[in-house]
Amino acid sequence: MSVRRETLSTADASRAQAKRRASAASRGVAPPRVESTIVPLVEGKLYVLPNAYELDGRVATHPLDARGFAPLNSYLVVEQSHALLIDTGWSVHEQSLLAQLDSLIDRSTPLTLWLLRSGEFAGICNTRPIVETFSVGSIYGAGGDPPAWADFRPEFVPYGAPVGGGAMSGVERCGVAVGEPVRVGDGRALLPLDAPLRLLSASWIYDAETRTLFTADAFTYAWQPTEHGPWLVTSDNDPTTPEGIWDYLVHSRFWWLAGARTEPLRTAIAAIFDSYDIETIAPAFGCVLHGRDLVDRHRRALDTILAHAATAPSIGREVAQWRIRSEA
Amino acid sequence: MSATDVNPLPRELAPGVFWLGRCQHAPFQGRVLHGYNSAFLVAGDDSSALIEAGHPVVLPDIERQLDGLLAAGVPELRYLLTTHTETPHSGGLGRLLQHFPEALAYGPLLDLHLVFPQYAARFRQVDPGDSLDLGGRELLIVEAPIRDMPYTRWVFDSRERVLFPGDGFAYAHYHEADHCGKTVEETPDLDLPDMMALFAEIALYWTNFVDMEPYIQRLDALLGDLRVAMVAPTHGLPIMDVGASIATIYDGLRGRRSSEHAPAETAKHESPIR
Questions:
Q1: Most CB atoms within 10 A, among A136, A289, B18, B159?
Q2: Do A60 and B86 touch (CB under 8 A)?
Q3: The domain A6-327 is classified under which CATH number: 3.40.630.10, 3.40.190.10, 3.60.15.10, 3.40.50.1170?
């Protein structure tokens, strides 16, 4: 398998990007600097669309004292003339994400969206602009009405206006049932799994075609010192340590693991890794973990950490006292 | 899940405290289960604050109710307070900041500069101990003993002693039982522990794996320290008589505790109002 990083540079992508920047400016949104990078995991089959954001004490995905850059990932699954996009990024990445998609699929390509965590902004912000730009036929989500849940951008739907209207109204709302595959093209099946390690409602997905496990907010702990990545981590460039992973977990969304009864979590995670051939761990944010050796290393590291967590003292009460202004 | 046609909100729970929103419903085991993603307007003598910015699905309802109250003479909306940055709590911030150019957003506003970058200059982070003066009443930012996101804040209204606990006290209700728009005390047949357990299963996953007793103890202490008279949760029916209802709430929280964890110490069941 060939794995490489690409920077978009085609004339078509540049022209489309210029139009989008002008459109964003007309809506009062300052166009951010666009860094459009794609990472082909399996050429023609699966692409990572990472968009970097700074860890500067203002983000909830990481401990407030973490510094560097992490990618918020979307994943494009391509099968024949169809495509499925997992998650739609932060608002500030709108133009970059549209450029990434433009570089990979035609705007008339039948496109399905799958929002792994509808209750969190990370990963759903650009649902409306993608629906308005590409040929989105359906949106999958954990529950409720995924298009309406993601329709909060005032540039598109201002105060007083109904949500889920316009281009969104023609999109099919699809629930996700664990174990019932979501089809892409003819034959490609993405299997939704119960997410054993998560904060809020979330799904994991297994793609047998590329041997990729999409893990939502789990395995999100690898980041880089600069905004240039690399966003694909292999055994040769793994920046993580067990101590660092533990510190990340208990100082962010997995604060509750310390002192928790983690045996059910370990069992459920082991069952997934034992059941499926996994070559890549694809988190919603943070670096993608690629390669069998690395996947096995991280599986074992997380299991060891979860075993340790059960013996650690709970920090549940002190978390309530954590302060933003002094810790950021 | 979609909004229903019958909406008894807005409702004034206490002088100057208005409950805004609309039920969202879902079929559940042959019945129609309802849940709230509420917002609350608190009116002071000089200005008003909106606590929680609304789930995207109910934004048009909240905005319409807000417009009606402001037109009826509620003081200017200057403060938009959110307990944390999930979409059911902060989804409407962008639209509100767009429509009320003098308003500022307060709360643990992590991530939101990446979501609503055009309004980042109007964000103000808050920590426990901070307060906002509305004129004649203060909103105090307090810790959140029950939460999912680690940087979550609860809000306390000093005048009517109302606690706004965000995800704390989260439970659904049944549509056909005429529970919509009612308080806990007005719905005696509501199985609160069962509803809390159901909500926790869906939304407070972590409670499946921890001993809840320390959290209950801290919650109990907070209710007592603040002398809370009323609780206005984002996802549940308001509790007008905390002393009478709190034991049931604690039972609901304990419903998520693993049987393998013995309680370290039993929290008080008597009225938290001291």
A1: A289
A2: no
A3: 3.60.15.10
A&B contacts, CB < 8 Å: 174
CA A178 – CA A87 distance, rounded (Å): 18
* Edge-to-edge strand ranges of the sheet holding B173-174: B2-3, B24-28, B31-35, B173-174
Q: Please write the tens of the pLDDT for every residue from A66-119.
A: 999 999 999 999 999 999 999 999 999 999 999 999 999 999 999 999 999 989
CA dist., res. A269 & res. A126, Å (int): 30
Contact (CB<8Å) B111/A157: no
By the CB < 8 Å criterion, does A175 face chain B? no
Per-residue burial over B54-66, b = 16 or more CB atoms within 10 Å of its CB, e = otherwise: bbbbbbbbbbebb
B38 Cα to chain A: minimum distance (Å): 15
The C-alpha atoms of residue B27 and residue A73 are separated, in whole angstroms, by 33
pLDDT digits (tens, 9 = 90+) for A193-222: 999 999 998 999 999 999 999 999 999 999
**A200: nearest CB among B113, B203, B210:** B203
A51 touches chain B (CB under 8 A): no
Q: Do A322 and B94 touch (CB under 8 A)?
A: no
**Helices in chain B by DSSP H: which ranges?**
59-71, 87-90, 93-99, 112-115, 192-203, 213-226, 242-254
Structural domains in chain B, sorted by start: 2-254 (3.60.15.10)
Going by the DSSP 8-state scheme, the letter that residue B29 receives in this structure is T
User: How many Cα atoms occupy the beta-carbon half-sphere of A116 within 13 Å?
Assistant: 35
Q: What is the ipTM of this complex?
A: 0.91
Closest CA–CA distance from residue B22 to any residue of chain A (Å): 14
Q: What is the pTM of this model?
A: 0.91
What are the chain A neighbours of B145 within 8 Å (beta carbons)? 317, 320
Residue B273: is it exposed, middle or buried by C-beta count within 10 angstroms (0-12/13-18/19+)? middle
Per-residue tokens: B274: 């001291």
Q: Contact A58/B85, CB-based, under 8 Å?
A: no
Q: Is A115 helix (H, G, I), strand (E, B) or coil?
A: strand
B210 at A interface, C-beta within 8 A = yes
A117 touches chain B (CB under 8 A): no
* Radius of gyration, alpha carbons of chain A: 19
Q: Is A121 within 8 Å of B85 when comparing Cβ atoms?
A: yes
